Amino acid sequence: xxxxxxxxxxLKLTLSYAGFLxxxxxxxxxxxxxxxxxxxxxxxxxxVGPNRADLVDAFGPKAALAMVFLLVFGLVGGWFLAGRxxxxxxxxxxxxxxxxxxxxxxxxxLEGRNDEFRELADAFDTMLAQLxxxxxxxxxxxxxxxxxxxxxxAVTQTLLDVARNDPNRDTGELIERLRFVNxxxxxxxxxxxxxxxxxxxxxxxxxxxLSLVAExxxxxxxxxxxxxxxxxxxxxxxxxxxGSYALLLQLTTNLVHNAIVHNLPAEGTVSVRTSVHPxxxxxxxxxxxxxxxxxxxxxxLEPFQRGSRRIRTxxxxxxxxxxxxxxxxxAHGGVLDLAARPAGGLRVRVQLPVAALRSGG
Length: 361
Description:
The protein is of the alpha+beta class. It has 8 helices and 7 strands. The protein has helices at about 10-35, 50-100, 115-165, 170-200, 210-230, 245-260, 295-300, 320-330, and strands spanning about 205-210, 230-235, 240-245, 270-275, 280-285, 335-340, 345-355. The strands form 2 sheets. The protein has a 5-stranded mixed sheet with strand order 2-4-5-7-6. It has a two-stranded antiparallel sheet with strand order 1-3. The longest helix has about 50 residues, at about 115-165. It is elongated and about 130 Å long. Residues about 310-315 and about 355-360 have low confidence and may be disordered.
């Protein structure tokens, strides 16, 4: 933004210091005049002692000299003091300009005791660290998304090339394979859009009962659980949260879907529970399965981390399930926690701020 040039903050502070010093000096001289000179009689003609006129003649030049000294001292001292006071602001400005050029690795790291400038510098350093982490995450996500989207497109191109080079090939098989690849690309695109929507927090909020959300998600996925030989268990109390019903349903559906897909080959179980606490509501999804190492659990929230050792069905998804869950949780001001179960499988807990459900009527 182009703006007209004006006085610098240092010059304004200098003039303020000098003006205040001049005002204080003027008031002091006024006090001397009011409470001292007015008690000296003003005599005309010959007098033994000095009269008021003599004192005024002697005091006037000295007072003017004192005011000039105060002006010079105020300007010089004010310029020096303003420079010392604004030195941290100069460092903050330089760091801001570096950040504007795309350099997010720079930190101010202002020394000294805590004050307003240091609080500002610390807040700016925290913001830079968050921006740097966010940009790195976005770059990594964009690279992974490009790779994932390129795969179905490349497969489609290969199938079309094969069909063009072999006109006598069975088109039914080709169409079925193209339909499958296209469905994968659509699922991936929709997942990317949902993840972007959650990250931007562009959704309306309302009172939502997580227990009802859990029931709907489990009912939707019950056929998949029966086909996979997995038993679904749902329990819990009314858990009032505040947010988007559609996104919270997507969150719960993703968790239950993952718990079904990544389970034991036979006779597996999935437990979905809701509970309410004074300041938070909890949604807990546990499943049986293979024992997981801590380093594996720590990578499950990364986009496109499918955990290939755990996948055993054709319903593995596009590798964005838990990444979407994490984004939706953060968008609702919640906390997501993943932990390996000692007996095998995974325990996922979603903690959201509690909200009072309004009764109708």
